[in-house]
Amino acid sequence: MEQLRFEYEAGAPARRHVLVGVVGSGDLEVMIEPGEPGRTTVHVTTSIDGYGRVWDAQLNRVFSAEPRAAMRIRIHDFGATPGVVGMRLAEAFEALDDALDGKEGA
């Protein structure tokens, strides 16, 4: 298992916790909680050693697109592909946006 850490500029803290995916399913789990203002940290626990550059490239694409809320994100993968990583992060961000828009549980 390899542990990776990344940091990105961000805005105000996220307003809630989010959990998407299930690591035991051969997929990927993303857990989000509010972070420190101005900073998002991403901690990745991956079952594939030596993929730090792949994670760096994928996360840079996600976090360079638009400013996001400040979050602490923990990702546990099970050998997930970059496409699954992007999909799970998008799902988590959508859950955060739905909570802000009052759509939670709709």
UniProtKB/TrEMBL annotation:
Keyword match Cytoplasm: yes
Alphabetic keyword roster: Cytoplasm, Phosphoprotein
Family matches, as Pfam families: ACP (PF06857)
Subcellular location: Cytoplasm
Cellular component aspect of the GO annotation: cytoplasm
Main subcellular localisation: cytoplasm
Post-translational modification, as annotated: Covalently binds the prosthetic group of malonate decarboxylase.
Chain positions with O-(phosphoribosyl dephospho-coenzyme A)serine modification: 25
Domain of life: Bacteria
InterPro entries, sorted: Mal_deCO2ase/Cit_lyase_ACP, Malonate_deCO2ase_dsu
Name of the protein this chain belongs to: Malonate decarboxylase acyl carrier protein
Organism for this UniProt entry: Cupriavidus necator
